[in-house]
Amino acid sequence: MARIYPFRAFRYDPARVHLEDVVTQPYDKITPAMQERYYEASPYNLVRVILGKQLPGDDEQENVYTRAAQTLRDWRKEGILKEESEPALYGYSQTYTVPHTTEVRERRGLIALGRLYDYADKVVYRHEQTFPQHKSDRMSLFKATRAYCEQVYMLYSDPAFTVEKLIFGVREANGNGSDCNPADLSITDEYGVVHRIWKLTDPTLINLVVTAMADKKLIIADGHHRYETSVAYSKERSSQLKLPLNQPRDEEERLSPGNLPEPPFPEAAMMMTFVNMEAPGITILPTHRVVHGIEGFSSPDFIVRASAYFDIRELDSPDLAVLSQTEQTAFIAVTIDGSYLLTAKPEAIAPLLADLPHRQGQLDIVQLHRVVLDKLLGLDEATITRLGSVSYLREADEAAKMVTEGDANIAFLIRPVTLEQLKEVSFAGDVMPQKSTDFYPKLLSGLAIYALD
Within a domain: residue 430? Predict the structure, then answer.
């Protein structure tokens, strides 16, 4: 099933840079204000590569992608980024406080190269829809830089904690207690999340981890567009090199100590972080929807039309606690006139969900998109993507504020998708709407870089 590989990563030289000043959040979570802050933090901040600034006069010869490629070349030449002396896997720990609580959790994983597969191979599964125009930017960056500076976040199931025991030790596999070995790197990001890295170079240990992962199926948690772009890039390079995309190595060679596995060609794999779904520490937050730009939108008219499909109760405030007390499919609508709890009428919405598998049609997020955004507001996924009429926000207060201050027509506050729901939908081959999940915290970019050349 899943095939992983150690690799000789390029990593920032801590003697040349202050690590907290050069790492970033993933590119798709970087706001314009964050981009500016990263630029100011250090001339070697990774934002210059993963999300550089567009400049007046950019053309095919000089643009954000060519500058990213030149930046990487310069940093490697100057020794800002240094290549590891031997292939390695990397244990990765993130210790964080769950937003809006005092609960502290630790999420542990493994950074490695992962083989790229088509979804049809039933090794890697997605859970969200993707759109072609979102992938063209990453393809241009990959081709220009020939490097993976960010990781795709992959989930796998291992109730026995086999991989964690190999990486972190038997007593530490479930996240309890303190670590026996100090981390090779420890930094704290702007959200107070502590990121720690352990470099693993022992060939016997590496091959044991590779073997332990060999029977796993993977679900993409974060990075659908990057993953699909990488698969397309891998196919393109496979054709150019006249090499089969999936070229198995001899099993005895793969498992022999000192003879480490490697991809058949560099583009056949990309950098991933693998996290066990059975381990503690995984947090999924809701992503609230804010709708704007609808001409002639009327809050009272919307409530009247929505009442055909939902039982509606006016609320004193948009309190998310109401959702946690509601067993049925439900969400909160925030309008300029007030906040309302919308609870689905199963018999009324059933015809609108008839073409969907039952497990998918029961999800809050699916009913919100299919019944409310599409049917009531005329915003299907293609329209949303084309017009940019829906914003996706983590913070409910921020979403509600956009409406009350007149910057949006209506906001919808939702519950998070559960891990069990995600597993069920993914392994069935179904997909949820775009941005259905918000895994927290995000994987830090810049901890390691996989250079194809």
Answer: no
One domain, residues 122 and 54: yes
- 203 with 86, same domain: the answer is yes
In a shared domain, residues 278 and 293: no
3-state DSSP helix/strand/coil percent for the chain, to nearest 5? 35, 25, 40
Entry pTM: 0.92
- Per-residue pLDDT tens digits for 276-323: 999 989 999 999 999 999 999 999 999 999 999 999 999 999 999 999
Question: Among residues 218, 175, 210, which one has the least CA distance to residue 196?
Answer: 175
Alpha-carbon gap, residue 89 to 111, rounded angstroms: 6
Q: Cα–chain-centroid distance for residue 356?
A: 25
CA distances to 19, 227, 246, 367 from 435, in Å: 30, 15, 30, 14
Give start and end residues of each alpha helix (H) in 297-371: 299-306, 321-324, 346-349, 358-361, 364-367
Cα-based distances in Å from 409 to 64, 341, 343, 406: 34, 17, 20, 7
Count structural domains, the chain: 2
Range of the domain at 238: 4-284+441-451
Closest CA to 270 of 4, 1, 8, 2: 4
Backbone angles phi, psi at 23, to 5 degrees: -85, 160
- Do residues 396 and 256 share a domain? no
